[in-house]
């Protein structure tokens, strides 16, 4: 009887406690398969409709169909020198060579450069300022019309008169009381006559060339071979004297004097 009475008392106390608090609504069950959709006025405003796209397309077509506007502007181009004193036109200086009067003061010529000859105070050419003779230089300059024939340099040259007389001495055999006959195989008399005839032709040709070039015969190129032997002899003397001055000449590469 005591156990039953205790349980009845507990049930009464629970009923008293629960009878004072209101019932809370239960939360709906969450379904993961059901999509969550948000739909209100703000979302409806952001929606894109076909009518809006059609209006936008029509406005774009109207804007593209219009031609670009053209405007004309007047630009003033200022001329140079407007408002400022105009500069003078550029002038061109031309140097004209004219013969100086006889009483003109001559400037002292003191030129020692590599180009051209040097002149003295009287107008003659300095011989050591040319590579060659003064006569050859003046003759070539007159032929090329670089120098006038009446210039002081040409007037100072001595006149050259080539001697065109060619003297050929005739060989005279000394008289002999007896002359033994010389065999034909060893007879050189015809060769001697041939040599004399050739030498006479050579001198005659030298005279013609000398008269044509207005040069003495000893200055012709065909007579320059006469000094070849003496030049070779001097060369041998120099070659023999070098070992006495410099030791080792000819014993190493590059020590040869004439190379």
Automatic annotation (TrEMBL):
Residues 1-37, 81-109 are annotated as: Disordered. It comes from the Eukaryota. InterPro entries: MYCBPAP. Pfam families: MYCBPAP (PF14646). This is Uncharacterized protein.
